[in-house]
Amino acid sequence: MSLELDINAGIKAAMLGKKEAELRALRAIKAAILVAKTAEGASAELTEADESKLLQKLAKQRKDSLEIFRAQNREDLAVKEQEELDVIERFLPKQMSEAELRTAITDIITSTGASSPADMGKVMGVATKQLAGKADGKAISALVKELLSK
């Protein structure tokens, strides 16, 4: 079943259950899908990879807003962002644990022959492609930096 069908079913269920936060998040996802489909040069259907990128973008926006709201002591707004983030994350693929990520990046460093922080670009290029959708870019970058500086 496609993401769009899941979203439509979720919207209907959220409306019937009067779940305001869930409805807000699902509508945001649906709007982003419509924008992506109608963007100039876009095909009528989104691939699974496109859907995943779209969801990751929405999740990242919520996380960034959450940090800002918490820094400004706006817990009322932070709660809304967290609620939406929780709904969006239900549709994202399972994220790697730190141990799994560390193992994967260590393997990538070994396979690319990287040995110093100067090789970070080479490692990041491979890591972001291999780990797309499975780990956050900031987490990948921080771990690559840590492992290459040893």
From TrEMBL:
Record-linked Gene3D superfamilies: 1.10.10.410, Uncharacterised protein YqeY/AIM41 PF09424, N-terminal domain
GO terms of molecular function: carbon-nitrogen ligase activity, with glutamine as amido-N-donor
Database matches in InterPro entries: Asn/Gln_tRNA_amidoTrase-B-like, GatB_Yqey_C_2, YqeY/Aim41, YqeY/Aim41_N
A Pfam family per the record: YqeY
Domain of life: Bacteria
Name the UniProt record assigns to this protein: GatB/YqeY domain-containing protein
